[in-house]
Amino acid sequence: MLFLLFAICYLLSAICYAQPAVSSTELIERAKEFAGKEVIYEGEVIGEVMNRGDHSWVNLNDGENAIGIWLDNNLSGIISFCGSYQARGDWLEVRGIFNRACKMHGADLDIHAINVKKTREGKAIRHRLLPEKQKLAIILSGVLLCLLILQFFKRRLSRK
């Protein structure tokens, strides 16, 4: 009896695996296959969040390409940092419907988000000026100043 109970439990138990995230390259190369299907896509928010009424556009870059994400404004509220020269953007995991040629957005390739989850917080980036570049800038500024003074005196002497 105990054996039968274990056998039934074993047969009824199923291991569920999370759907793996697809890369932008996969989405682009296999667009026909993914068209209209629910996908999970991960990437860094780049550029700006572009509000369009009650929805927003966000571009996510997974390191290979960027994909446009169309999402409800209440989902875009979790975004703190957008990737640029000054910041590393938040890393988001988006679950949504992939559109190979979206009828709503002029036949663009995009994902209409159903759910968005922030997996990594972005941060501001401080760029330091290298000492070699600073010295070179000072030297070149001095040379430029000398040339301007030389040209000024040359014009004054040619007038006399």
Supply the number of helical segments: 5
**Arithmetic mean pLDDT:** 87
CATH architecture of the largest domain: Beta Barrel
By helix and strand content, what is the structural category? alpha+beta
Assign an overall shape: elongated
**CATH superfamily caption of the largest domain:** Nucleic acid-binding proteins
Tell me what portion of residues adopts beta-strand conformation. 35-45%
Text of the CATH class of the largest domain: Mainly Beta
Helix content, binned percent: 25-40%
Strand order in the sheet with the most strands: 1-2-3-6-5
Supply database-style keywords.
OB fold (Dihydrolipoamide Acetyltransferase, E2P), 5-stranded mixed beta barrel, 160 residues, alpha+beta, elongated
Structural write-up:
With 160 residues, the protein is of the alpha+beta class. It has 2 domains: 17-124, Nucleic acid-binding proteins (OB fold (Dihydrolipoamide Acetyltransferase, E2P)), CATH 2.40.50.140; 128-160. Helix content is 34%, strand content 36%. It has helices at 2-12, 24-29, 31-34, 73-76, 131-159, and strands at 38-52, 55-61, 66-72, 87-88, 91-102, 108-120, 123-124. It has a 5-stranded mixed beta barrel with strand order 1-2-3-6-5. The protein has a two-stranded antiparallel sheet with strand order 4-7.
